[in-house]
Specification:
The complex is a heterodimer of chains A (121) and B (112).
Chain A: E1 3-6, E2 10-12, E3 18-25, E4 34-39, E5 45-52, E6 57-60, E7 69-73, E8 78-83, E9 92-102, E10 105-111, E11 115-119
Parallel strand pairs in A: 2-11
Antiparallel strand pairs in A: 1-3, 3-8, 4-5, 4-9, 5-6, 7-8, 9-10, 9-11
Chain B: E1 9-12, E2 18-23, E3 34-39, E4 46-49, E5 63-68, E6 71-76, E7 85-95, E8 98-103, E9 107-111
Parallel strand pairs in B: 1-9
Antiparallel strand pairs in B: 2-6, 3-4, 3-7, 5-6, 7-8, 7-9
Classes of the chains: A mainly beta (121), B mainly beta (112).
Chain lengths: 121, 112
């Protein structure tokens, strides 16, 4: 079974750093892009960026470029999303998802269970 | 403000057919395929429709998708109480900054 399992909820203070993880299993982790998606409380989905674990090629949404860093460690089939200095506005649920594609069609499946990040003083 | 436009809410009674629209532009829906995701309360999104009208295995054939020009729609026939969820459309956008994934704002479906 293809599965993405994310790290647990985090409560942090503004200014702190954070790295959350997404571990893939049941497939060849290095041959599929992994995406990160933000969902702020009561709001919709926002794409943040993608990483190809095979060579760590990364692309970011313009809205998140410079705000977060996406990385991967293919030796342990894990992708990461990190912040160097959290803000209260980073409070959200964060999902990772595998990017599937056929020719020119791309979609996210499956999704991780989500990691809740709360930033509060 | 989301790049793709969906109605914020929709409703129907059990057994009814409901449709949810998704409007975009030539740089996203007009030139790329559309996917739909279902998010049940308190859970992660789940792929419902991919490549405009394809259902993943396990998704009932009550769910169907279509696309025309710069708009897409999701239809749910034989509405059931367990269909109450948020539904999101998504597509790639060929923006000047490079490919971008854009989502609709989501439609909250209520089964009356």
């Amino acid at each position: 079974e293809v599965q993405l399992v994310q790290s647990g909820a985090e409560v942090k203070k503004p200014g702190e750093s954070l790295k959350i993880s997404c571990k893939g299993s049941g497939y060849s982790f290095t041959t599929y892009w992994i995406g990160w998606v933000r969902q702020m409380p009561g709001k919709g989905l926002e794409w943040m960026g993608l990483i190809y674990p095979g060579d760590s090629d990364t692309t970011y949404s313009p809205s998140f470029q410079g705000q977060v860093t996406i990385s991967a460690d293919k030796s342990i089939s894990t992708a990461y999303l990190q912040w160097s200095s959290l803000k209260a506005s980073d409070t959200a649920m964060y999902y990772c998802a595998r990017l599937e594609n056929i020719v020119t069609s791309n979609w996210f499946d499956p999704w991780g269970q989500g990691t809740l990040v709360i930033v509060s003083s | 403000q989301s790049v793709l436009t969906q109605p914020p809410s929709a409703s129907g009674t059990p057994g009814q057919r409901v449709t949810i629209s998704c409007s975009g532009s030539s740089s996203n829906i007009g030139s790329n395929t559309v996917n739909w995701y279902q998010q049940l309360p308190g859970t992660a999104p789940k792929l419902l429709i991919y490549s405009n009208n394809q259902r993943p295995s396990g998704v009932p054939d009550r769910f169907s998708g279509s696309k025309s020009g710069t708009s897409a729609s999701l239809a749910i026939s034989g509405l059931q109480s367990e269909d109450e969820a948020d539904y999101y459309c998504a597509a790639w956008d060929d923006s000047l900054n490079g490919p971008d994934v854009v989502f609709g704002g989501g439609t909250k479906l209520t089964v009356l």
